[in-house]
């Protein structure tokens, strides 16, 4: 009975409230419900996991009932003031009041749609994780843009280089066979050439060719170490130490290979190697192994390949490419 009297008193009071007072009270009621939810959840976070789970479920049910009851009550009160969930304006309400009512109605509509009354405001600051993701996305977009720009800058150089190379190879009945640009291109190109000569698989894999080149360089250190005497990477390392470090990279990493390694492979394999280029004069290595039986290894050197810089491909007869 007492509860009924209080309700009647509240109704009488609400009938004399201004629009601003109704809105202010609604915000206070929502805040009180939020505080109550927080308190109940804190109280539920005690006991065993099973007890906490049961308490949490009960809190959610209780808050849901209170929230539904509060929304129904507030919507009814707002309707009596001229508001509706589909219209945010009334002919006798000022622009400021309309905006404020619309914000409050929107909040209630979102709540009716299932959004918790403790949901974060729409304009809350993004979390640190969101900022990190946005930063990474921007960096990736910038990187891709730089790559595109670099590619466009080297396109003309690559085209000119390829055209010059084609003019050299075409009269000889030769063409380029693409090799994967993964740091092993020199060794893969040699492997491809050995396979062409044997008519089946190469006797050596690209990894084995790496190891063979490194072993030959170690065994003939005096022929190769002069190339390291002018190195100044580290004053604490001698030329021999830098040379050994270089040999380890040759045999165990994807370090790019060049003329030093080609020279070593020439002697390891006892093969004449011809390197064609569209940017530089052609290079012959291992002339002492040259014979007239077509056993030479033929490679192409590309200065502007793929925008990645230097690259080696295999060179084959056109008829081998066309089948």
Automatic annotation (TrEMBL):
Residues 94-107, 136-151 have a biased composition (Basic and acidic residues). It comes from the Eukaryota. InterPro entries: OTU_dom, Papain-like_cys_pep_sf, Peptidase_C85-like. Residues 126-135 have a biased composition (Basic residues). Residues 80-93 have a biased composition (Low complexity). Residues 1-12 have a biased composition (Acidic residues). This is OTU domain-containing protein. It comes from Brassica rapa subsp. trilocularis. The gene is A04p000530.1_BraROA.
């Amino acid at each position: 009975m007492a509860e009924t009297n209080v309700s009647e008193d509240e109704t009488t009071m609400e009938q004399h409230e201004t629009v601003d007072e109704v809105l202010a009270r609604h915000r206070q009621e929502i805040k009180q419900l939020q505080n109550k939810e927080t308190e109940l959840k804190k109280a539920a976070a005690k006991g065993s996991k099973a007890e906490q789970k049961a308490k949490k479920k009960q809190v959610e049910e209780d808050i849901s009932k209170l929230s539904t009851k509060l929304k129904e009550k507030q919507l009814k009160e707002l309707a009596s003031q001229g508001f509706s969930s589909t219209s945010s304006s009334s002919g006798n309400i000022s622009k400021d009041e309309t905006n404020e009512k619309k914000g409050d109605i929107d909040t209630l509509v979102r709540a009716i749609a299932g959004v918790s009354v403790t949901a974060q405001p729409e304009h809350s600051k993004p979390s640190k994780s969101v900022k990190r993701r946005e930063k990474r996305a921007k960096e990736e977009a910038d990187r891709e843009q730089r790559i595109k720009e670099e590619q466009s800058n080297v396109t003309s150089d690559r085209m000119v280089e390829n055209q010059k190379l084609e003019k050299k190879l075409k009269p000889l009945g030769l063409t380029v066979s693409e090799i994967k640009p993964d740091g092993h291109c020199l060794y893969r190109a040699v492997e491809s050439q050995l396979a062409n000569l044997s008519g089946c698989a190469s006797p050596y894999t690209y990894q084995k060719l790496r190891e063979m080149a490194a072993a030959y360089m170690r065994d003939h250190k005096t022929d190769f170490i002069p190339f390291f005497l002018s190195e100044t990477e580290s004053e604490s390392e001698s030329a021999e130490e830098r040379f050994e470090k270089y040999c380890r990279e040759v045999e165990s990493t994807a370090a790019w290979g060049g003329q030093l390694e080609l020279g070593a492979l020439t002697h390891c394999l006892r093969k004449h190697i011809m390197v064609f280029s569209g940017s530089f004069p052609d290079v012959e290595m291992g002339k002492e192994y040259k014979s007239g039986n077509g056993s030479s290894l033929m490679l192409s050197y590309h200065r502007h390949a793929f925008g990645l810089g230097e690259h080696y491909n295999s060179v084959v007869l056109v008829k081998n490419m066309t089948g």
